[in-house]
Amino acid sequence: HPSYYHRNSIQQLELPQRKAALIVPAFETLHYRLTFPKSKAELLSMLDMGSLYTFRYHVWPKGHAPTDFAKWRTATVPYRVAWQPDFEPYVVVRRDCPKYDQRFVGFGWNKVSHIMELDAQEYELLVLPNAFMIHMPHAPSFDISKFRLSAGYRGCLQTLREEFHQDLSRRYGAAALKYLTAERSL
Predict the structure, then answer these.
(1) What are the domain boundaries of the chain?
(2) Strand order in the sheet with 124-127
(3) Are 130 and 40 in contact (CB under 8 A)?
(4) How far apart are alpha carbons 28 and 62 in whole angstroms?
(5) What are the distances in angstroms from CA 56 to CA 23, 172, 176?
(6) Sequential DSSP letters for the chain
(7) Cβ(53)–Cβ(43) under 8 Å?
(8) Beta 26-28 vs 53-54: how paired, if at all?
(9) Residue 29 and residue 36: Cα distance in Å, rounded?
(10) For the segment 68-117, what is each residue's pLDDT rounded down to a tens digit?
(11) What is the pLDDT of residue 108?
């Protein structure tokens, strides 16, 4: 049972005493109806058969590639991954962790900025070896349509990203330079 597994992981990893974000590897299907896998072995079989994919690998691989799905396939214990530009995993964190930046409502940069902030605060990014989630297909959201169709929306988002970088620099000093450097090299 997923919530039992998460509770167990939280206890074993002593999450209440340490700064860690537990990454739940994300997959997706293009099928509207799917029998949810009951185990990691079943999920891997579905992945190999092509009924599941790693999340957004065909449109936005950078978002989840740092999870290191090749390593996850055989992992039996949680493993640490490093922050990379545009990383936006789904995470389980303590309630007192930094909140999402409210500037990034709608589509674009909410999870990316959150993981950046966690990394800046030296949270460990730990991938859970037996956890997974599956994104099911659905109609595009109103916000993603605005992002795709409106140059004004994308311009505003870029301004907010620049403000966010400045705020990180003010709060974390030289340690935050890596985020800006990564952003500029993209």
Answers:
(1) 2-102+111-140
(2) 79-81, 124-127, 20-24, 90-92
(3) yes
(4) 15
(5) 16, 31, 27
(6) -HHHHHHHHHHHTTGGGS-EEEEE-EEE-S-SS----SSHHHHHHHHHHTS-EETTTTT-GGGTGGG-HHHHHH--S-EEE---TT---EEE--TTSPPPPTT--SSSSHHHHHHHHHHHTT-EEEE-TT--EEEPP-PPPHHHHHHHH-HHHHHHHHHHHHHHHHHHHHHHGGGGHHHHHHHHH-
(7) no
(8) antiparallel
(9) 10
(10) 999 999 999 999 999 999 999 999 998 889 888 888 877 777 899 999 99
(11) 74
What's this model's pTM, rounded to 2 decimal places? 0.84
Question: What are 131's two structure tokens?
Answer: 């956890």
Full strand arrangement of the beta sheet holding 53-54: 53-54, 26-28, 133-135
Tokens of 77: 């214990």
